[in-house]
Amino acid sequence: YQAKRDRTGVEVYESKRDSNTPDRLGLLGDLRRALDAHEVQLHYQPKVRFDGQVAGLEALVRWVHPERGKVPPDEFIAIAESSGLMPHLTEYVLETALGQVARWRAQGLRVPVAVNVSPRDVHTPGFAGSVAARLARHGVPAGALQLEITEHVLLEDPQRAADTLAGLTGHGVKMSLDDFGTGYSSLVHLRRLPVSELKIDRSFVARLAVDAQDAEIVRCTVDLAHSLGLLVVAEGVEDDETWERLRDLGCDAVQGWLVAAAMPPDETTAWLLARGSRGWQRPRAALPAAE
Ligand code: C2E
Ligand code: MG
Ligand code: MG
Ligand code: MG
Prior knowledge:
The chain is of the alpha/beta class. The protein is built from twelve helices and nine strands. An eight-stranded mixed beta barrel has the order 1-2-4-5-6-7-8-9, surrounded by six helices. α8 links the parallel β6 and β7. Bound molecules: ligand C2E and magnesium ion (3 copies). One magnesium ion (MG) binds near residues 58 and 178.
């Protein structure tokens, strides 16, 4: 994930590419304080099936810096990853998400929540056990938690990653393979990773309706995933036409602004309650919601 980190660094800190620039260190210190002060929040984005049923919610971290305003997750996650803060951020996210899941369950809303974890987390000794202990502490069944990983977990010490993931699935936690199709996608990875869901990266979904090649890539990915017994979720679905194409290609669920952007917890509760058992209904003329 070196490339991603570099790319992010270049985008944000144009003239300061060194990972130890004062700016970067400043942001890191601010993030550490923001975590301690509980200023980092989680928003939730629904995953819905084509019949409208809510398959789950994905927790996405949000940080509003007191001076800089919204800092995109890609930026501060790269900083957390390269600084050793990642395990702390992930603990924070898991703790917050599981607390929310427990509250929703107490209200009768039994919706699974997916948490993104970084390769760093998967390589942290004792990670599987700590997730299991946290689930127990919140009284949340493992089946209500999903972890989204990327193929990058296999770049460094694939055996240890495989052991950790086996530990997690052994506890009953479901694994999802995020951003599929970017970078290192390979059949070997799919075989080695104990995932039950595959998420097709937004970059293929975005132009699906207008680009025949992207459509073919999505078709092959859906077929491959299904032949391996995996559920397929398409991310970044913004319009009706894409939704229809994905349904016709046999995709299982979608996520994207067409359905809903990531929402703060209260809004998510209202969204879930408003849908009730009918699930999400596609509006006649859908207007993509701005995030
Ligand atoms: P991701 O896990 O692939 O999440 C999908 C990203 O696409 C999110 O961006 C989401 O807000 C955005 N998105 C969803 N629907 C649409 C759409 O229809 N159109 C467009 N253009 N974008 C859409 P976000 O929230 O900025 O997160 C970016 C990445 O940061 C995530 O990609 C994930 O890799 C990482 N991330 C977010 N939260 C966490 C976290 O708690 N822990 C870790 N380790 N990584 C996180
Ligand atoms: Mg994700
Ligand atoms: Mg993704
Ligand atoms: Mg992505």
